[in-house]
From TrEMBL:
Organism: Candidatus Cohnella colombiensis
A UniProt-annotated Pfam family: Bac_luciferase
Gene Ontology molecular function, alphabetical: monooxygenase activity; oxidoreductase activity, acting on paired donors, with incorporation or reduction of molecular oxygen
Protein name from the UniProt record: LLM class flavin-dependent oxidoreductase
Location of the Luciferase-like domain: 9-312
Coiled-coil intervals: none
């Protein structure tokens, strides 16, 4: 198993969106999108980032639905970077099959696999796999608790509400790691943060807009809940995710990113049934301000934002989504390079000194 870096971790993730280009309206083929994501993973690995994440969606405007299958390709294209789902829609997947797939991935990747489990903003997988949305919370709770048991035991007997019982079932294969690290993905709900603390998993907090300080109660609740139930404080890890784009100067970053970010927000709002949302340039300038969650700017500005969030949360990981809205791959690649070579070394040095 490769040596893992200690201290603060920095990485990137993608949801594999296939968004029409904001000017031409062109859609790139899913095959091209997948190949570009593999190239991005190789760049992140070679440049020294710590983790690479792949999202899961079940619709034609996203390229990745079989996350484990795709991560197997990424595992073969990379050498040292950790690999994670971002996120696994745990409410609509069988925990036994999920464990088997990720334990196999752990073997293929030489012990580099993790899972971020969430309930998902999109609901297509419920009808697709024959589950009821009315069981939204109950399915997630049962599945994550069963996954934790599978993670801890080679043989298990278990009975629940939504899948057949297990009687002295052998759970194979076993991963290289003692257990597959699992994090719970959390949006803005205090109840979700409390549940992550109760489970004792890591917590990945998606902060996609506004002032990050407004999310501090979620981190505090997560840690307080976990510690009150006997979980070790050292195991209650926090990861922060957000949208970002890095260029040589802040002016260049904002000029290049605005069109694609606005395009993405408009498209996703339509997907979620929130109507036709248009972000003006003035609104974008506010969203990209120094005290906001949007990681857009020069390397120095990104450093300052990450360090400000670290003062708020004391978190262990930051992951940026850099490839939204039809952003051309050459710009994504440059952003990855700047994150790895100019941002990450400073963050690690400042946090670990």
């Amino acid at each position: 198993m490769p040596e893992q870096q200690a201290g603060f971790e920095i990485g990137v993730y993608t949801l594999g969106d296939i968004t029409p280009h904001p000017v031409t309206g062109r859609l790139i083929p899913a095959q091209q999108r997948l190949q570009e994501i593999i190239e991005a993973s190789k760049l992140a690995d070679e440049a020294g980032l710590d983790i690479f994440g792949i999202g899961e969606h079940h619709r034609l405007d996203y390229a990745v639905s079989a996350t484990a299958v795709f991560l197997a390709s990424v595992a073969q294209a990379t050498k040292r970077i950790k690999l994670t789902s971002a996120t696994t829609v745990l409410s609509t997947v069988d925990p036994v099959r999920l464990f088997e797939e990720y334990a196999t991935l752990d073997l293929l990747s030489n012990g580099r696999v993790e899972i971020i489990a969430g309930r998902g903003a999109f609901l297509e997988s419920f009808d697709l796999y024959g589950y009821s949305i009315s069981d939204y919370d109950e399915l997630f709770n049962e599945n994550i608790e069963l996954f934790q048991l599978l993670n801890q035991n080679e043989r298990i007997s278990w009975q629940g509400q939504f899948r057949p019982p297990l009687h002295e079932a052998e759970i194979a294969p076993r991963p290289i790691q003692k257990q597959i690290p699992i994090w719970t993905g959390v949006g803005g709900r205090l109840e979700s943060a409390e549940r992550a603390g109760r489970l004792g998993t890591g917590m990945v907090l998606a902060i996609l807009g506004g002032d990050p300080a407004s999310f501090k109660p979620l981190v505090d609740t997560y840690r307080a809940t976990g510690i009150s139930l006997g979980h070790s404080a050292s195991n209650l890890k926090v990861g922060i995710t957000g949208h970002g784009y890095i260029a040589t100067t802040k002016e260049q970053a904002k000029e290049e990113y605005y069109t694609y970010y606005s395009n993405y927000r408009k498209y996703v709002s339509g997907q979620l049934g929130h109507g036709d949302v248009h972000i003006s340039r003035a609104e974008f300038e506010q969203m990209a301000g120094p005290d906001t969650a949007l990681f857009v700017g020069s390397p120095q500005q990104i450093i300052e934002k990450i360090l400000r969030q670290y003062e708020l949360f004391g978190h262990q990981r930051c992951m940026l989504q850099l490839d939204i809205g039809g952003l051309p791959f050459d710009k994504v690649a440059k952003s990855i390079e700047l994150l790895a070579t100019e941002v990450a070394p400073v963050i690690r040095r400042e946090i670990c000194k």
